[in-house]
Specification:
The structure holds 2 protein chains of 2 kinds.
Chain A lengths: L4 E9 L2 E2 L14 H11 L4 E5 L4 H17 L4 E4 L5 H9 L4 E4 L1 H5 L2 H10 L4 E10 L4 E6 L4 E6 H10 L4 E6 L11 H10 L4 E4 L5 H9 L5 E4 L1 H4 L5 H10 L6
Parallel strand pairs in A: 1-3, 1-11, 3-4, 4-5, 5-6, 6-9, 9-10, 10-11
Antiparallel strand pairs in A: 1-2, 6-7, 7-8
Helix pairs in contact in A: 1-2, 8-10
Chain B lengths: L1 E4 L6 H10 L4 E4 L2 H5 L3 E4 L5 H11 L1 H10 L4 E4 L1 H4 L4 E2 L5 E2 L7 E4 L14 E6 L1 E2 L13 E6 L1 E4 L6 E7 L1 E9 L2 E4 L7 H21 L1
Parallel strand pairs in B: 1-2, 1-3, 3-4, 4-14, 5-7
Antiparallel strand pairs in B: 5-6, 7-11, 8-10, 9-12, 12-13, 13-14
The chains are: A alpha/beta, B alpha/beta.
Amino acid sequence: MLTKRIIPCLDVKDGRVVKGIQFVQLRDAGDPVELARFYDEQGADELVFLDISASHEGRKTMVEVVKAVASELAIPFTVGGGINTLEDMKRILRAGADKVSLNTAAVNRPELITEGSNYFGAQCIVVAVDAKYDPDLESWTVYTHGGRTRTERDVMDWVKEAVDRGAGEILLTSMDSDGEKKGFDLALTKAVSEKVSVPVIASGGAGNADHFANAFTKGQADAALAASIFHYKETSVAEVKAFIKEKGVFVR
Amino acid sequence: MIGIIDYGMGNLFSVSKALERLEVPYLISDEPVALMEADGLILPGVGAIKDAMELLHRTGLSNTIIDFAATGKPLLGICLGMQLLFEESEENGGTRGLGLLPGYVKKFPGVTAEGISYKVPHMGWNQLKFINESPILKKVDEDFVYFVHSYYAVTEAADVLIASSQYDVDVPAVVGKENIFGTQFHPEKSSKAGMRILLNFTKMAEERMGVS
């Protein structure tokens, strides 16, 4: 039986991890390699690096970061942010990443999912979906550009299309829960998990270990991703795993 | 020196970086002569078995692998590389493999015998269960390792199964016979257990070099 996965997410800008990470035991808290190693030691099952560089130079630096991380890390990792073409995917995957995550670019041109999936295999292609509940429509709507742009797409339709086009995994972020630390959006996570046949990573809202347990049991997620709760040491990957194991969730 | 076979289908980078972390010298090559001189060979692989076999035949590397296996030096197939070691695969309507291990490769049905559907590929961390003793598992516990695959091996030869993992069926996770080994999971992505397995393989290559 597969374990449920706990995935820390690191935002990288111009080659440096941002968001004020506070680890006293680290010599350089902005070094992606050192942080990656730290989370690996903690029992993280995978890592996600989100490139938030705005400049072309920053994007080029990300390839160097991927190479450095791949040299050190013996667990899988995904890179997202700024991947717009098949060439971008090739650059990142050949630098040693295991998966790429597509968001806005996939919404703008869904064929990109198929191209990547045909070239590298579905297991390499993660489609990231930023979802926000629309009370009038009584369903979730897809947002792009880091949550700034509302689209006309319905989340349930989009995840289905993404998987039909060759997505191997869905990284599902609830914009309603993100940053609130009140738990993952269980209704959204469950609805998407039941809709698609590929693994679903729940994201947005993790505030404590119990929230992770709920994402797996009530939300039926295959993996759960969090950033600040780990970075600010409110809890650790090891603590979360020990807790959810007690709750009967199968972890490594 | 460990040879990594470059036939255009593998994630050579991850495997080579893992060997660098172990401080094991390696070469990545598609040259039969250079590969034959290695103390151990790694056959990586990601993708479709039919494409892989076509490439191995076209480059003549299929013969190199078979000749290398006959020397008694250790050979390790990883993921698709492991599947290639078997006699045949039902992928793409049937493809002959290298035939170094008895058995064949088939796809996960995606539905249990009770009619419950499950996710394919088998992707993520799953636990090893040991079946037969092998030097490849020296100082390895029944730990979790990282899998990504849609096909799995089936073999009648009980001695070939070294370890398995449960995913609807008992999935052969580590296989081997004499000097020929395969892991269905990615040791280079399987944290400490995976690194230990790679180390065990390279030690076998070194030790054999010592006696020859």
